Amino acid sequence: MKTLLMFSLILFSACFTNLFSQNDYQNSGIGSSAFLVKGNSINFEFHQITGRKNGYTLQSNGSPQQLWVDLNNPEFLHAVFTNSQWKDPPFPDRTCLYFASTSGGNDWFELGPVPDSSRSGFPSIYGTSDGAVVIANHSSYFDHTSRTGLFVDTSPFQYLFTAFDPGVQPRTIWPRCIVTPNNKVIIAAHSTDGPAGNLALNTFDPDSGTFSGWIFGGQTKAETYSLSVSNSGKVGVTYLGDGIDDGDVFYLESTDNGITWSSSIKIFECPAEQGIAIGSFRGINLNFYAEEPCVVFEIVKQDFSTGGYYSREPSEIHFWSPNINGGVSKAIADSNNVPFAPSLTFMEVLTPLCRPVISRSQNDNYLFVAFSAATENVYVGIDSLTYFAGYFMYSSDGGESWANPEKFTPDTPLLNWKYISIAPICPVELLSPDQDYTITIHMTLQADSLEGSPNPLFLSAKYFHVSSVPYLVNAEENPFIVNEFKLEQNFPNPFNPSTKINYQIPEISVVTIKVYDVLGNEIATLVNEEKSTGSYEIKFSAKGLPSGIYFYQLKTSSFIQTRKMILLK
Hints:
Layout (H helix, E strand, L loop, with lengths): L1 E12 L5 E3 L3 E2 L7 E5 L4 E12 L12 E3 L7 E7 L11 E7 L7 E5 L6 E8 L5 E7 L7 E6 L9 E3 L7 E8 L5 E7 L6 E8 L4 E2 L3 E5 L5 E5 L5 E6 L8 E6 L10 E4 L7 E14 L2 E12 L4 E2 L6 E5 L9 E4 L19 E9 L5 E14 L3 E12 L10 E2 L8 E7 L2 E2 L1 E3 L6 E5 L1 E6 L12 E8 L2 E4 L11 E2 L10 E8 L3 E9 L4 E10 L2 E8 L6 E8 L4 E8 L2
Parallel strand pairs: 1-35, 1-36, 2-4, 28-33
Antiparallel strand pairs: 1-37, 1-38, 2-3, 4-5, 5-37, 6-7, 7-8, 8-9, 10-11, 11-12, 12-13, 14-15, 15-16, 16-17, 16-18, 19-20, 20-21, 21-22, 23-24, 24-25, 24-26, 26-27, 28-29, 29-30, 30-31, 32-36, 34-35, 39-40, 40-43, 41-42, 41-44, 44-45
């Protein structure tokens, strides 16, 4: 059995151009609509969503939830971002912009703000079984007070949202939402009164248009909670404690669509009473592996007597699931597998390793985690700010073991990558009767050049979509490991005038790929350089060549393979 793994990201990004890798960037001029990032084992092709820029860079106080993929129509992607066309406070036009794609992210269109008639921010997004989008955010839509609202589209891409008000008492903000298999919408939010500072949970029934009413959990901070639902409909929520539980992490669940909840269990305990201790901080995200909850969160040294944190000391990304490591959380990313750099970014409250998100494959075979990491690059202006990079890792055994984190954002141009979202469930497509299938991973990410943060002179952020080069490996082994040389048949074939060629390299090698005519004359050299382990794609243009049969050959010091292709004009 083989698995074709297709990685896809949507990047909320500053201006990019043409083609670059971790160590190479070729500028083709501002405004290019596509370029390629070459990672160690995965390539990412970027597509610009829109020319609209953004001046409000704070996407979330925790781990964002800004992307949803319709599993019944995996080419349908939906994303929502906090956006402002102002370059500095008070951002009077701040809104939640909704974008969508019907082509798997190759082409995007902007539907508009949600809601369309009031200031809003900090959205989360999910969808119903028929593909209609559900967006929760806080806004002044219902009255002059900013509070939680739920907005449900009538059908896919209609942009005819109906607003539903969960009520003014208690007032809640910073909502998260999910949709169960039977289309009940579960909301988790932060209560500002009655009782203040507590996790607040509510269930919306679209059939009746009514809410079940708020149920309160323990004390928590802004956006430091996450919801998820299993394939069977089990709903879980995880949150970071506050008050007497500051630094702790909790989990609870419901099997009746959020009407009743289990008691909270503590999955990470922080000795905050000591004053200075290692505790949970800001980023937290939840998913399921089969029916088992899986939580990722960040921990860092803190001074609980003053509320401060040690941003210049190493932090860690932890993973917890009840049947992994005896039910004790464990570090999956720290200074042992991610280069350490201090975080000098104070206002957005970012630790050196922060804001993790977690996804699962539709067939429950894999878990995927992404997070932001501080780099040694610093912007020096009115304040010193750290540039962050994005990292990705995976598990094929429910979190028992993890691949080393891999940086998937480029070194050049120098940009600040953060606020990663990941599709809660990555779609799987069956390719053949012998169980060949594809997994497509989607993420969103924001990047800017940082000049706008300490000295807001211009809007710096843009939106991009990115898709990876697919590659074939043996799924009965590890589907992410390239374990053999391989030169794939070009596609399309026959072709006119261009075609794509995929190949994979199991070890660092000097690689050449050349094209020959039927007489053995060399026509073109497509590759002539050292390549790291991984899978690659190249494009061959036969413009100017006559129709006929051509051969392309991959050659290393230990491997040669030749294939035939047909140019048909």
